[in-house]
């Protein structure tokens, strides 16, 4: 079988899965331990339970508990399954962000199949050296993290303190530039992955792609709940289904894509899709307020 683009024998596949869990485990523990709860309903629910346990009235309940007592299985199913789909079908802003984040996810996951073809077959890396090539994604994400923090600390937060929150589309300003990094990085990666060009050159293209992915993700995932606060959970549910589904498909289509078209042409095809999304980000930034005014779901 293949895991993260590499062949794994049947008797060793469970060790590969354990390695993936070890990578994800520390992040999950840190988030679970240190990330504060911000959902008002959950905070009030916890407070009500604590007051009842401390000897308060057994009839003391939070609003979410009261609402849930009147929910039928049909209402729960509609809220959990139909609402995310409805949001994407009836709101063009939500539909675009779901498609865009799905494409970004599939772009990133395509590297799991492109890297063995690039670094093993073109640059004759060993399996271990090909694995180290994935550090280029860490360079991109790390640089983006620093850049986004600098933007928030020195420009965005001071402006909020001085002038207030402003229009929701201000959250998309970093994405206007960062969205261009993905198509540029993919063209860069595809057409520099040649034996006569040093391997670090296409790796820099990969770093550029992941830089753009991180920044645009941050902007979209702040913009959506701020614009549609009442439907934040359904928004992220629908978005997660879209990007996870396309990412899973990327593992299947990437190898035939790159083998039939070549690394250069295959990367160009994906870069062209991302180029169209750059225009979508600018349209969303410019017309977002008008779209939200017509939406049935956006906060007015």
Give the CATH level 1 class. Answer: Mainly Alpha
Shape: globular
- Work out the strand percent: under 5%
The structural class is: mainly alpha
Give the helix level as a range of percent. over 70%
The CATH topology comes to Growth Hormone, Chain: A
Task: Please trace the helix and strand order, writing H or E for each element.
Answer: EEHHHHHHHHHHH
The main sheet orders its strands as: 1-2
Low-confidence stretches: 1-13
Tell me the number of strands.
2
Corresponding CATH architecture: Up-down Bundle
- Gyration radius (Cα, Å) is 22 Å
Task: State the helix count.
Answer: 11
Q: CATH H-level name... which superfamily?
A: MFS general substrate transporter like domains
User: How many domains comprise the coordinates?
Assistant: 1
Main sheet: strands, sense, barrel: 2 strands, antiparallel
Overall mean pLDDT:
87
Q: Could you tell me how far the N terminus lies from the C terminus, measured between alpha carbons in angstroms?
A: 50 Å
Primary descriptors:
globular, 79% helix, 300 residues, disordered N terminus, mainly alpha, 1% strand, single chain, Growth Hormone, Chain: A
Description:
This protein has one domain (about 70-295): MFS general substrate transporter like domains (Growth Hormone, Chain: A). Helices cover about 80% and strands about 0% of the residues. The protein has helices spanning about 15-35, 40-55, 65-70, 75-90, 90-120, 125-135, 135-165, 175-180, 180-190, 200-225, 230-295, and strands at about 1-5, 5. The chain has a two-stranded antiparallel ribbon. A hairpin with a 2-residue loop joins strand 1 (about 1-5) and strand 2 (about 5). The N and C termini lie far apart (about 50 Å). The model is unreliable at about 1-15 (pLDDT under 50).
């Amino acid at each position: 079988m293949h895991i993260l683009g590499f062949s794994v024998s049947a008797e060793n596949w469970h060790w590969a899965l354990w390695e993936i869990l070890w990578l994800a485990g520390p992040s999950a523990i840190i988030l679970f331990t240190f990330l504060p709860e911000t959902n008002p309903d959950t905070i009030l629910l916890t407070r009500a339970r604590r007051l009842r346990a401390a000897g308060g009235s057994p009839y003391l309940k939070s609003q979410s508990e009261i609402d849930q007592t009147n929910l039928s299985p049909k209402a729960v199913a509609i809220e959990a399954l139909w609402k995310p789909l409805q949001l994407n079908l009836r709101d063009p802003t939500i539909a675009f962000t779901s498609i865009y984040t799905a494409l970004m996810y599939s772009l990133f996951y395509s590297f799991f199949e492109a890297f063995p073809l690039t670094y093993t077959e073109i640059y004759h890396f060993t399996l271990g050296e090909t694995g180290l090539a994935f550090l280029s994604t860490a360079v991109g994400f790390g640089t983006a993290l620093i850049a986004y923090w600098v933007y928030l600390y020195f420009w965005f937060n001071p402006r909020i303190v001085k002038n207030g929150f402003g229009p929701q589309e201000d959250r998309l300003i970093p994405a206007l530039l960062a969205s261009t990094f993905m198509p540029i990085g993919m063209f860069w990666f595809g057409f520099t992955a040649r034996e006569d060009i040093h391997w670090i050159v296409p790796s820099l293209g990969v770093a550029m792609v992941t830089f753009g992915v991180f920044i645009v993700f941050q902007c979209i995932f702040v913009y959506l709940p701020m614009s549609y606060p009442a439907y934040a959970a359904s928004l992220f549910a629908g978005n997660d289904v879209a990007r996870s589904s396309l990412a899973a498909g990327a593992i299947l289509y990437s190898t035939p894509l790159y083998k039939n078209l070549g690394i250069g042409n295959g990367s160009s095809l994906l870069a062209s899709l991302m180029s169209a999304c750059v225009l979508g980000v600018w349209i969303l930034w410019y017309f977002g307020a008008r779209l939200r005014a017509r939406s049935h779901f956006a906060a007015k």
